[in-house]
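Record now logged underneath.
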Amino acid sequence: MNWAVASVDDLTRRTVLDIYHELLKSSNSVLHKCTRFKIELLQLENPSISEIAEQLLEAASIIWTISDDFPDDAEGYHVASKANEYAQQVKLIAKAIKREDQTELDRLVQELKRRPFL
């Protein structure tokens, strides 16, 4: 991503993008687990998908906090928004697993599959 706002220094940009890419990797890992394993096995994951979702939400929150420091940086807010979307999707997947709702899990996994992991 190429941030146009000069007020965002390179270290901040790299930090945000590093956090974002790790969030994407974790979301993709959850996706792969959910496509390979049944709910019964997903419920045994350690850390649990719920714990992973909470960590992703924390990471997305960090990105939002940094973005708030640069209110004129539209691309930073875009990254923050995307990070939150992925984290929220994993949270919904975790809830479906907890409820043992295979139909909802399948629907949510299909939604996540359609998202780019770039």
Notes: The two ends are 10 Å apart (CA to CA). The mean pLDDT is 92. The CA atoms of residues 31 and 113 lie 7 Å apart. The first helix runs from residue 10 to 36.
